[in-house]
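Support reply, case 0932

Customer input (verbatim):
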Amino acid sequence: MTRWPMIAAVAAAGCLGVMVAGTRAQAAEIVLTSSTAMREAVEELAAMFERASGNKVTMSFQSGVETSAKIEAGAVADLVVTTPEAIDALVKDGKVVPDTRVNFVQSGVGVAVRAGAPRPDIGTPEAFKEAMLAAKSVASAKDQAASIS
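Our regenerated output:
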């Protein structure tokens, strides 16, 4: 991981430990559901937590909309990772414990590639432009953030 995602992962690891300590610190299995956009950071974070605690993290990933729908439909999770707005809506609907939200990452620019595909060079404006021109498809989202609750 690059420097900023690593900083976010370390910060989130602290949050994960705090959140679990408040709920199921002695659990052998922690159930986490997350939007796919956070998969790489969450998997790395969960691996660090598993090594440090000895507990198992069982993860499921789906789109942000599907993450909220899954929890709204009654799925049980110890941790939910999705957008701050989605966490707020889940709190309002009584599906997530109030005051447990922790914002742990915000991104102005991000690049996602399929698993196994080479990572594009986006280290300079010129390299970023070349990567965008060479891409088979491009999508954008404005001001992305993630929260954990």
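We compared this against your earlier run and they match. Two observations from our side: Residues 88 and 101 are 8 Å apart (CA to CA). Strands lie at 29-35, 56-62, 79-82, 102-107, 144-148. Please reopen the case if you see a mismatch on your end.
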